[in-house]
From TrEMBL:
Species classification: Bacteria, Pseudomonadati, Spirochaetota, Spirochaetia, Brevinematales
Keyword Repeat: no
A single GO molecular function term of this UniProt record: translation initiation factor activity
Chain's gene name: infB
Subcellular compartments: Cytoplasm
Organism: Thermospira aquatica
Family the entry assigns: Belongs to the TRAFAC class translation factor GTPase superfamily. Classic translation factor GTPase family. IF-2 subfamily.
The protein's name: Translation initiation factor IF-2
A GO cellular component entry from the record: cytosol
Main localization category: cytoplasm
Keywords, comma-separated and alphabetical: Cytoplasm, GTP-binding, Initiation factor, Nucleotide-binding, Protein biosynthesis
Annotated GTP binding sites: 85-92, 131-135, 185-188
Domain of life, source organism: Bacteria
Chain spans, region G-domain: 79-227
Length: 368
C-alpha cells in the first residue's frame, strides 16, 4: 500500500516537494504534493538524491515477511549436498554410484548442462543431492548450487588434479560459507595421486585432517564404486555436526534451481524447500511469476503431496516460467499473490525506465 506522501518525503530529505515531483517525472511517475508513494517508488526516488529509505516494513511489502521460528517449532531436516568440480572429474558418475543409477552415460556430449536434484535413501538417513555442471560456461549454475546447499562435495580427479573450475567451485563454496568435503575421484587409475590433490588444495586453504587441518578427504572411484560408503559417512557426520533444522509446519519457502517450459505440463520448476512445507493446492509467488501447486513430483517422476524442508520437487502450476535462482514463497491467497506480483512488476518497470533514462543521459553526454 501507500506509505508516504510526497510532502512528507520532501520534509524528511530536506528538499522542496517540487524537486521530488520533478525527479518522479524523470522516473516516469506523475505525482502531486499530496499524493502517496509506495515503498518502491519512495526508495527509488530517495536513491536519486543519495538517500536511503530504510524502513523495514516498506521492504516487506515486496519481500514477503517470513516469521521467525520459535526453537520448539524446529525439527531436524535432511542435509542438502551439492556436488561440484571441474568438467569430467566424475560428479555425475559419483552420484550414479550413490544412487545406483545411470545418468552419466545418457547425457548429451557426456557433459552435465543443468542442475540435477535427487533425494537419496541411505541406511543412515536421507540426503538431498544436487549435481552441477563442471563446464566453464555454467558459472551461474555453480553459484546457485553453492548458494542453496548445506554442504559442498568437491570432486577432484586424482589423475588431473586441481583445475580451473575446481578453484571456481571452491570459491563459490567459500563465498556461501558452506563446509567442503573433498572426494578424490578416479583412484582406480594407475596415474592417480591422492597426495597431489591434497597438496594442491592445501594451498587453497583446505588442509586435510590427517595433516592437522579440518577438511575431510575421501578417496573414491565412482567407476569401481570404491569409497562410496565412506563418502556418505563423511557427509552424514558433517550434517550431524551442523544440527540442521527447519519448521515444517508453516508455509513453504524455497529456491528455484531449474525451470523450463514443458510441452503438456506448462511451466515447471525444480524447487529446493528451505523452510516450511509446500503442499498441493498452495498459492505461491516466485519473482514476478505466481501460481497454484497443481502437481509435485520427485526425481523418479512419482507424485508428492507434501514437500518438506530440504526436499527437491518439480512443481507444476506456474503462470509463466520462473527465473532460476529466485525465491519461492507459499502465500495465503491468490489475491495476495497477485498483489505481490503487481508490485514487483511495477518496481521492475520503474527500474527499467530508470535504466533507459541513464543510458539516454550517457548517450547525450557522448554526443556533446
Ligand atoms: P560434467 O558434468 O560435464 O562436469 O562432468 P562430470 O564431472 O559429471 O563427469 P562424469 O561423471 O560425466 O564422468 C566423466 C568421465 O569420467 C566419464 O567417462 C566417466 O565414466 C569417467 N569417470 C568418472 N568417474 C571415474 C572413476 O572413478 N574412474 C574412472 N576410471 N573413470 C571415471
Ligand atoms: Mg556431470
Amino acid at each position: 500500500g501507500e506509505v508516504i506522501t510526497v510532502a512528507e518525503l520532501a520534509r524528511k530529505m530536506n528538499l522542496k516537494a517540487s524537486e521530488i515531483i520533478q525527479k518522479l517525472m524523470d522516473l516516469g511517475v506523475t505525482a502531486t504534493i499530496n499524493d502517496s508513494l509506495d515503498s518502491d517508488t519512495a526508495t527509488l526516488v530517495a536513491q536519486e538524491f543519495n538517500c536511503q529509505v530504510t524502513v523495514r516494513s516498506l521492504k516487506n511489502e515486496v519481500e514477503i515477511h517470513e516469521t521467525e521460528d520459535r526453537p520448539e517449532d524446529l525439527k531436524p531436516r535432511i542435509p542438502v549436498v551439492t556436488i561440484m568440480g571441474h568438467v569430467d572429474h566424475g560428479k555425475t558418475k559419483l552420484l550414479d554410484a550413490i544412487r545406483h543409477s545411470n545418468v552419466a552415460e545418457h547425457e548429451s556430449g557426456g557433459i552435465t548442462q543443468h542442475i540435477g536434484a535427487y533425494k537419496v535413501k541411505t541406511p543412515r538417513g536421507e540426503i538431498t543431492f544436487l549435481d552441477t555442471p563442471g563446464h566453464e560456461a555454467f558459472t551461474a549454475m555453480r553459484a546457485r548450487g553453492a548458494h542453496v546447499t548445506d554442504i559442498v562435495v568437491l570432486v577432484v580427479s586424482a589423475v588431473e588434479g586441481v583445475m580451473p573450475q575446481t578453484i571456481e567451485a571452491l570459491n563459490h563454496a567459500k563465498a556461501a560459507q558452506v563446509p567442503i568435503i573433498v572426494a578424490v575421484n578416479k583412484i582406480d587409475l594407475p596415474e592417480a595421486s591422492i597426495d597431489r590433490v591434497k597438496q594442491q588444495l592445501s594451498e587453497q586453504g583446505l588442509l586435510p585432517e590427517e595433516w592437522g587441518g579440518d577438511t575431510m578427504y575421501i578417496p573414491v572411484s565412482a567407476l569401481k564404486k570404491i569409497g562410496i560408503e565412506e563418502l556418505l559417512e563423511a557427509i552424514l557426520l558433517q550434517a550431524e555436526m551442523m544440527e540442521l533444522k527447519a519448521n515444517p509446519n508453516k508455509p513453504g519457502v524455497g529456491y528455484v534451481v531449474e525451470s523450463k517450459m514443458d510441452i503438456g505440463r506448462g511451466a515447471v520448476a525444480t524447487v529446493i524447500v528451505k523452510n516450511g512445507s509446500i503442499r498441493i493446492g498452495d498459492y505461491f509467488v516466485v519473482g514476478t511469476t505466481m501460481g497454484r501447486v497443481r502437481g509435485m513430483f520427485d526425481d523418479t517422476g512419482a507424485k508428492v503431496s507434501v514437500a518438506y524442508p530440504s526436499y527437491p520437487v518439480e512443481i507444476m502450476g506456474f503462470d509463466a516460467v520462473p527465473e532460476a535462482g529466485d525465491k519461492f514463497h507459499v502465500v495465503e491467497s491468490e489475491d495476495f499473490a497477485k498483489e505481490i506480483v503487481a508490485k514487483r512488476l511495477e518496481l521492475k518497470r520503474i527500474e527499467e525506465t530508470n535504466r533507459i533514462k541513464k543510458i539516454q543521459m550517457e548517450n547525450a553526454f557522448q554526443s556533446l
